[in-house]
Amino acid sequence: MNIANKRILVTGASDGIGKEISIKLSKSGAKMILLGRNKEKLESVSMQCQNECHIVACDITDTGALYAELEIILEQGGVDVLINNAGIFHKGGDVTTIADEEIDKIIETNMTAHIKITKKLLPSMRNHETAILNIISKAGVVAQPGLSVYSASKYGMQGFTDVLREDTKDEPIRIAAVYQAGTNTGMFAKSGQNAPLEKFSEPDDLAEVVRFMLEQPEKIWLKEVHIEF
Ligand SMILES: NC(=O)c1ccc[n+]([C@@H]2O[C@H](COP(=O)([O-])OP(=O)(O)OC[C@H]3O[C@@H](n4cnc5c(N)ncnc54)[C@H](OP(=O)(O)O)[C@@H]3O)[C@@H](O)[C@H]2O)c1
Question: What pTM did the predictor assign?
Answer without folding.
Answer: 0.98
